[in-house]
Write a structure and sequence with these properties.
about 140 residues, single chain
């Protein structure tokens, strides 16, 4: 369903069928697993699927991506070359258009490319892999 191979077809099918559904991502490692588990547990309690009460908490940030194609973020900040990725930012950092997200280097450490933010916003994901192929997204900023 849908017009692209985004992997979100089950969510779109639920939308068309008017069935409540959630699509949720988090960064793995560096505490991402615990944050995901805590958030999912809070949601299940909120929906009444588990007994209990959630303690109020302030949001770290409110980040929205809306409109047609808003969930297709693989095109953000793509690298024009393959090489070794060295991030300069972390998740939740605020950046402005043109700020350095990281660099692509060759096996000898020479800089091949600087990846810069294409918009102002909050960094919501940064690759943790070392080798990136040409066209890989090197950070999503919303």
């Amino acid at each position: 369903m849908g017009d692209d191979a985004s992997g979100r077809t089950a969510l779109y099918a639920a939308y068309l069928a008017q069935i409540p559904a959630i699509y949720w991502e988090t960064s793995w490692s560096l505490g991402g697993e615990e944050e995901y588990q805590r958030g999912l547990n809070r949601l299940i309690i909120h929906l009444g699927m588990l007994a209990g009460e959630n303690e109020p908490m302030e949001p770290r940030a409110v980040v929205e991506s809306v409109g047609h194609g808003a969930g297709d973020m693989a095109t953000h900040n793509q690298t024009p070359v393959a090489g070794l990725w060295r991030p300069a930012v972390q998740v939740w950092d605020r950046v402005r258009t043109g700020d350095t997200l990281g660099e692509i280097r060759d096996l000898y450490g020479s800089q091949l490319e600087t990846i810069r933010a294409q918009r102002d916003g909050v960094v919501i994901t940064v690759p943790r892999i070392q080798f990136v192929e040409q066209g890989c997204q090197c950070g999503i900023v919303l």
